[in-house]
């Protein structure tokens, strides 16, 4: 994009005076980039950006965290998880609390690390906290492939895997007032964007597939403004995203996983919005079925934040009893969380 074009986009977005627009970014990485680049401050008051349910840690229900802490405290079992997940509270404790009480918890940077831990400690069962969206699911497939190739039998997954198109459909069917979607670039790189073509036509709202840099996001928002009233999809992340996604990654996912209903924090069970291990790989499952109970901390408004009904600042606990140092709810824990990013933005 030339400097002139970007300048014009900035001017038009700053001076926009049309109908009020609510534009949702459903990907947590987009949320973080929007804040980092100060994009809301570049937009007219008539364009409001809303963070959607695309942060995997934020949408994980209490029962899942409870199962993880139970496993961590079980003799002969260890839990491996990405860092953010350690601080999310279940009904009585977080994984970090379980670790402080003597539970076995390993913070890892990739699922592959768990294989080395498990291989070196064959008497113990290692369970990976497998949360994530379409982007991460092939990584868990590779973990199982590698475990089989290396003959490592003491590894399992506790899955809380979600898919984007179904939750977007659920939001729109629930009456959410969204005028356009910044479609998730990483998810589309894996899964493609054909589902969003269907959704755009069904709901009559535009979707734009976007990259993650500030200028790319501005161009995406500009395109969404110009596409108002058109149920179409544009791909502004070419070269990375193809319409059909990555056939190899999709194949890997399909080999090990199949669609299932899934519980989302504050949204309940959304049919077909999750992925579970296929029955032939059940020996790798650590008890993922039926983890649906969703009990949020008293006063936490994550459910309303995740669906764009309120901004994080409208939660009475925001910045008072709930901060990144002492998070009350999952949306304040994750660096992709809406509450976390709004809190950080106050200091910019
Ligand atoms: Fe929950 Fe904290 Fe966000 Fe309020 S500010 S919705 S308590 S995470």
Characterization of this structure:
The chain is α/β, with parallel strands linked by helices and 348 residues long. It folds into three domains: 3-54 and 164-235, Rossmann fold, CATH 3.40.50; 62-163 and 245-284, HypD, alpha/beta domain 2 (Rossmann fold), CATH 3.40.50; 302-345, no CATH class. It is built from 13 helices and eleven strands. It has a six-stranded mixed sheet, with helices on both faces. Strands 2-1-7-8-9 form a five-stranded parallel sheet. Strand 5 (125-132), helix 6 (137-150) and strand 6 form a beta-alpha-beta unit. Helix 6 (137-150) packs across helix 11 (247-256) and helix 7 packs parallel to helix 9 (194-203). The radius of gyration is 20 Å and the shape is globular. The protein binds iron/sulfur cluster. Residues 300-302, 305, 312, 315, 317-318, 322, 328-329, 331-332, 339 line the site of iron/sulfur cluster. Iron/sulfur cluster binds at residues 300-302, 305, 312, 315, 317-318, 322, 328-329, 331-332, 339.
């Amino acid at each position: 994009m030339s400097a002139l074009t970007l300048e014009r986009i900035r001017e038009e977005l700053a001076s926009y005076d049309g109908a009020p627009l609510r534009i949702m970014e459903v990907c947590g990485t987009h949320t973080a980039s929007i804040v980092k680049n100060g994009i809301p401050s570049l937009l007219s008051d008539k364009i409001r950006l809303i963070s959607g349910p695309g942060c995997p840690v934020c949408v994980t229900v209490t029962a899942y965290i409870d199962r993880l802490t139970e496993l961590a405290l079980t003799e002969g079992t260890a839990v491996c998880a990405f860092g953010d997940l350690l601080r999310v509270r279940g009904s009585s404790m977080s994984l970090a609390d379980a670790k402080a009480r003597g539970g076995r918890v390993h913070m890892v940077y990739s699922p592959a690390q768990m294989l080395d831990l498990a291989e070196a400690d064959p008497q113990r069962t290692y369970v990976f906290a497998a949360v994530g969206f379409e982007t991460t699911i092939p990584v868990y497939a590779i973990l199982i492939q590698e475990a089989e190739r290396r003959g490592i039998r003491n590894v399992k997954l506790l899955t809380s895997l979600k898919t984007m198109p179904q939750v977007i459909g659920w939001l729109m069917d629930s009456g959410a007032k969204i005028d356009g979607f910044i479609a998730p670039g990483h998810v589309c790189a894996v899964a493609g964007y054909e589902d969003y073509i269907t959704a755009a036509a069904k709901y009559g709202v535009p979707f734009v597939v976007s990259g993650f840099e500030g200028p790319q996001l501005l161009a995406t928002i500009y395109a969404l403004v110009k596409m108002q009233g058109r149920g179409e999809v544009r791909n502004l992340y070419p070269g990375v995203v193809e319409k059909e996604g990555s056939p190899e990654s999709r194949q890997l996912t399909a080999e090990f996983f199949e669609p299932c209903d899934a519980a989302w924090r504050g949204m309940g069970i959304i049919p077909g919005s999750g992925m579970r291990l296929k029955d032939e790989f059940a020996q790798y499952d650590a008890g993922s079925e039926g983890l649906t109970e969703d009990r949020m901390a008293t006063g936490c408004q994550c459910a309303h934040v995740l669906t764009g009904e309120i901004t994080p600042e409208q939660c009475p606990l925001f910045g008072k009893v709930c901060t990144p140092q002492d998070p009350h709810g999952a949306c304040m824990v994750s660096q992709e969380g809406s509450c976390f990013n709004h809190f950080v933005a106050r200091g910019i």
